[in-house]
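During the reporting period the student researcher (J.K.) took over the structure-prediction task from the postdoctoral fellow and processed the backlog of single-chain submissions. One of the processed entries is reproduced below for the supervisory committee.
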Amino acid sequence: MLTKRQTIRKYIRFYGSVQAVGFRYYAKKAADLYGATGWVQNEYDGSVSMEIQGTQQQIDDVIDGIQRGTYIRIDYMDEKPLTVIPDERGFRVKYY
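J.K. obtained the following structure tokens:
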């Protein structure tokens, strides 16, 4: 059973109006604000992928922060759990 303070890592693929709308900027800003680590990048098919690590609350807060972007519209997300990366520091934007 997952505890509130347990660190987890997820791969999330976002679909909708998620490119050319500041998605990665909002993701980095929110991750830094809430203390989550990982990365975010645009994909060639118009989606955005992210690996994010933190508590479930931190991850939820980051996603909420992204959705506050003016033109961002997340239609749906695919998620899968990943293995936690010990000692990961920071959140970054990855480029192709």
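The committee noted the following: The mean pLDDT is 95.
J.K. will present the remaining backlog at the next meeting.
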